[in-house]
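User: Hey, quick favor. My workstation is busy. Could you predict this chain's structure for me?
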Amino acid sequence: MIDAQKNAVVLLSGGLDSATVLALAIEAGYKAYALSFSYGQRHSWELECAKRVAAAGGAAEHRIANIDLRAFGGSALTAEIDVPRGRSAEEMGHGIPITYVPARNTIFLSFALAWAEVLGSSDIFLGVNALDYSGYPDCRPEYIAAYEAMANLATRAGVEGAQRLKIHSPLMQLTKAGIIREGLRLGVDYGITSSCYDPAHDGAPCGSCDSCLLRAKGFAECGVADPLLQR
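Assistant: No problem, here it is.
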């Protein structure tokens, strides 16, 4: 029998945000089960980072689920479409960019929901953000609330009253700088994370995609150097 006390599933991409969420979940007293995805993304470096973050961050277990969203494409991350580079803050603030992967968070949360039910857990953590983000529709608070309501209708544990699922999105109203400050407070090693949409084979960030630019903005606003760029 799995010990269900304070278990939580934490979606872990290997990026700055999810590394911070893992630390926050553990600080809150949860036994963290980290879940990452090999989903046909244009690079696998983030999965290497996820392994390092899970180990360094104290996850009880780390699993990588294999799915292939290249079957549908429709995104610069899952199809032969160029990643946008060098966009201004104003450009990033309007519209949904081509790096949006159709239904990705819905798919990821479904896997997390399944594992949470097996673990007897009522808690899922993920690092979505509604302030410094690139316009993704599945990063909004109304989406998270709607998914949580659906999830409690969708499982045996929910129907039988054994589980009342809570989706935790502790970064939702933080700027990127605020997220970094939280991580630094918790001792997160951002030097082992990856935020780039299109890194080199050795993990070196491109420095010009939306995600790299948002990360750089966050560190600059914190007044600290990005340790990833010092390695």
